[in-house]
Structures are given as structure tokens and as C-alpha cells.
Amino acid sequence: MDHLNSTSPPGRSPITACFVNITAAEKAELILLQEKLQHRASAVFKLYYGYLVIPFAVIALILNIIFVMAVCSAIKKHRVSRKCYVLIINRAVGDIIATVAAMVTVTYVLVKVEPNRDLVQVMDTFFIASFWSALISYTALSSLKLYAVARPFNYRKTVTMKRCLYLVVISWVFFAFVLVYTLGITALTKIPALQAWSGCRLETCLRTMYRTRNTFMTFIYFFTIICFIGTVFFVHRARKFVSSFHQKDSTARPRILRNRFPMWKLALNVGTFAIFHIFYVIWALGLLTITDLCFFQRNYPAMMRLLGLVRLSLLTRMLLDPILSFVTDFQIKRSMLSLFNINATVQPFDSRKQFAMSTSETNSSDNASGTPAGADKTKTTTISEGTTIRRKNSASKESESGEPPVSVDKSNDAD
């Protein structure tokens, strides 16, 4: 832990001023403290950045790779909304990079007897920066959902696939910016030639960089939650408007608005984001409120231990998200099973059930307006690869109206 040294080479300013003005006795104690902190930091690295990370990172990496393959397959077969799921893929790709960075860190801290703290922080930057791209994806999903509810007539014209791809590119621009910014300030502080030229110290340049990054990350977190709350508010207003409209026009067929705006999917994504990222936000806010410039350096092992626990919470989110998607998203589950050539029956536990509910309510409305009860029924079918859900009318009704049965297998294609 060279940053604790109170002396510096000629022509080079000290990397930190936290341990400069000390007496000879304090300097002797500082040498013992340096060895003690180095031993503690190495133990923290091996446990919280090594052994504990292995199961989380390995499982999360495998699940996210399978998830990306399943979503790409579903998009290619026009089973899901391209606009939203491109952003979901972007989040998953960021998670894959984060887990790979975590595995590289695991390998280094377990192989090295005394891990270098600077190298650990550099490798950890890839972990945090790729996690940043996931933040952008969640924010974009909430913002797009909010715009779809607030401006439904302009949504299709304004929100195009090309613009969604632009959002993906912007998220990776943030990735590159955070990476270059962090590595640049770290180099100006830790590399002797650059540090002598810049005069940067741990408690000045490096601390300012981390405070700036933590401030922006905290803003993104709360902005995402505010967008979600705004979406819920506008959806509630839209439902009230549609309900009052259909009360005035009894001949109009009722449409279940929740099918157009399945809030449970957005709530699930934002919920995992809010729960597992709150620990990082608390960590960031805590560092922003500390005014002691040397606090982190004096308590380095304890602070890195806390950061290691925070990293585990982020890895838990990366592990949990694909599992929830496989369990709750009918089309993604179908694609995932087809990747492994598993011909299993998949029940529509997602918005397809809500479609069946809305079809039943539509039929009930037809029955109330004079249509015989047995004339229009919803038939349950077994869902597997290549099948569809159809609402079949009776032969007499088809001959009278001439309308074919309604297929809803590609209800998300338009988006």
C-alpha cells in the first residue's frame, strides 16, 4: 500500500497528503499500520472479491448468455416486441460484461499472494461501467413506457426501431465515457510520471472523480423510479378515461387496457432494479456525505469489505433477472426451451392469460347484447413450438359474417 508512504521520490509530489505531516514515532507506527492494512486488504480481496463471487458470477454469466440467445430467437421469429427487448438485450449484454470482469478479478485476487489494490480497482471499473449500461437500459424502458402512455398517438411515429438502437448506442457511449474517465483520472493519480505532471492526489482528483460518478449514478437511479411512478399514474388516468367512455357507449366492445400496458412486466424489472441497486445508492450517498478527505484511506479494508458486499447485491440482480424472465415471460420461455430442443408444453403465464380474459369479457359483452351463449366460445389449446391461440366461432356465425378466426400468436410484432 504505497499510498501510505509519507515520502515521495524527488520531483514527485506525494500521492496523498493524509500521512505527510507526521513525527518519526508516528512514521514508525505508520509502517506497522501499512503492513497490517495490506494483510487485511488482501484477506478482504480474496474473500469478498474471490471466493464469494465465484458462484454468483458463474451462474449469472451462463444464465445471461442463454437469455440473450433466447431473446434473439424470439425477436427473429417475431414473437416479442423488438423495441423493448432490444433494450433488455442491451441490459443483459452489460450484465455479461460485468460477470466476465468479476471472473477476471476473481482469478487475479486468488492467484496473486498480495493483490495490488490499483489493479483490483482498474478491473473493478469494468464491472461498474458495464453495470452502468444496465442502468441506462432500465431508464430507457421506463421512459419509453411513460411516453407510450402519455403520448399514445405519437408513440409509433416517434419511437422507432432505429431510435431504440440509438438508445443502445448511447448506453455504450456512457460505458466508454465512464471507463475512460475513471481510468484517465486513476492514471493521472497513480502513474509516477503523470502524477508528477498533474499533481493529482487520492483526496483531490481521484475523490472528485468518484464523487462525480456516484452523483450521476444516484440521479439515474431515482430518475428511473420517478419515470415508473409517472407511468403508473398515467395508466391509471387512461383506464379511468376508457372506463367512462365505454359506460357512455354501451355498443363498443370493451378493451382491457392492461393488455396494451402490461404493468407487471415493467414493475418486475424496475422492482429488481430498485431493490438490488439501492445498496449501491446507499453506498454512494454515504461517500457523498463524508467530508473527511482521508476517511477512505484510513479505513480502506473496511470500505472495500462494504463495497464487496454491494457488488454481491449487484451480481444477485444479474442472476435473478434472467430467471424471472424465464419463469414469467411465456415467449422467452418457449424460445429458451427450443434452443435445447425440449418439446414441452408451455402454459401462457404472462400477458396471454390476460388476452384470454379480455376475449372472455368481449364474449360476455356479445352475449349481453343478444348473441346466444353457445355461439362464441374461447377454446383452450396446448401451446408448443409453431402453434397459435385462436378464438373459434361456431359454423353458423362464420357463414353469416364471413370473418375468419382471430390469430393472436404475433400480437407483439407491431412493436
From TrEMBL:
Residues 63-325 form the G-protein coupled receptors family 1 profile domain. GO terms for cellular component: plasma membrane. SUPFAM superfamilies: Family A G protein-coupled receptor-like (SSF81321). InterPro entries: GPCR_Rhodpsn_7TM. Its main location: membrane. The chain crosses the membrane at residues 48-72, 84-111, 126-144, 165-188, 216-235, 266-286. Residues 356-415 are annotated as: Disordered. It is a multi-pass membrane protein. One of its GO terms (molecular function) is G protein-coupled receptor activity. This is G_PROTEIN_RECEP_F1_2 domain-containing protein. It comes from Panagrellus redivivus.
